[in-house]
Each structure stands twice: as structure tokens, then as C-alpha cells.
Amino acid sequence: MHILKIDAYSLLFLVFIVVVFPVAITAFCEFFLLKPSVFRMSLPLLLFTSLIAAALYFSIIRSDVTLGGDTLHINHIIYSRTLKPQEIRSLNFYDQLPEHLKPTLRTNGIGIGRVRIGNFKTKNSAKGFYLYASSPVSVITTEKETLVFSSSAALHRQIVAWHDKSS
Question: Whole-model pTM above 0.85?
């Protein structure tokens, strides 16, 4: 089940503005202000940047949660976690991300706009793993870290039922 719920067009626009637009402006300024031969050198950079932006876009929207027999897999193209029911201390569902769980420091992850993917420190300096793009959120607390991911109420109920059945 896919968990990151963000409007694809908004995300594509954000990636375009942050990654592709500055390179495109530079390339076209070179074309109009300098010789066209300089522009031909910038064109591969523009194409390469566009490919990086497309890869970033598709990596952000491709996340899912899989409930196996005795494991819960939270997957992303780059980051993932696998949990067993006995590792889970608490399961919570929030309509909005609580203030104490908001990420403050990125330790290894992606943070573009409101999207947070990867490892972050929370406001209370706890270690957190985020696959967050929008509310509502499911929060799973283990001894080592807190996992925060965008989810629906139905997905959260499935996780709770799996946890109760497996414990």
C-alpha cells in the first residue's frame, strides 16, 4: 500500500523549481548573452539535471508498507525499515504531526518542502525515521527510534490488527 500522499503535480513543480529551473535559466542566459557554442556545452548539463530531477520525483512518490506474517516492512527506494511485532512499543495515529515529533535536524535523508524521507532528529532530540509528506500520520515507537509515516486511518487499523494478532 502506498503511503506518501502528496499531489503529484505539486511535487513535480517543487522539484522543477528547486532543481531544473536554475540550470535552465543559466543555460538560456548563456544562449542569449554569449555565443551559441557556449549554450551547446550547457545543454548536456540541463538534460542531466532534468534526469536527476525526474529520478528524485519518482523516488519520493514510491513508498509503501507491507505487512508480512511476522514482519512489517516500511519501504522507500533509498530507505527502509523492517520491524517485528515484539520490537514495537507503541502505535499511534494523528490527524496532524504532533509538535514534539516534528523533525528539526536531518541526519541522513531528503527534505524538500514539507516532504521528509530518511533519518531525522526530532524536537526532543530523539532519533526518527520519516516517510512523511502530508497528514494524517502513523507513528510507531521502538526502543531505538520513532518511525513516522504518512498513512490513512485504514492502513493504521491494518497495522494495529497485524500487531495485535502477531503479539
Answer: no
Cis peptide before 136 (omega within 30 of 0): yes
Give residue-wise pLDDT tens across range 11-42.
Answer: 666 666 676 777 777 777 766 776 666 666 66
Q: What is the side-by-side strand order in the sheet with 80-83?
A: 63-67, 72-76, 80-83
The count of domains in the chain is: 2
* 98 domain residue, yes or no: yes
Please give the backbone phi and psi of residue 73, each rounded to the nearest 5 degrees, phi first: -105, 125
Last residue of a domain, one of 61, 88, 106: 61
Taking the C-alpha atoms of residue 115 and residue 117, their distance in angstroms, rounded to an integer, is 7
φ and ψ of 61, to 5 deg: -85, -5
Domain enclosing residue 117, as ranges: 64-166
| Rounded Cα distance, 23 and 109, in Å | 23
Core vs surface per residue 141-154: b (16+ CB within 10 A) or e: bbeebbbbbbbeee
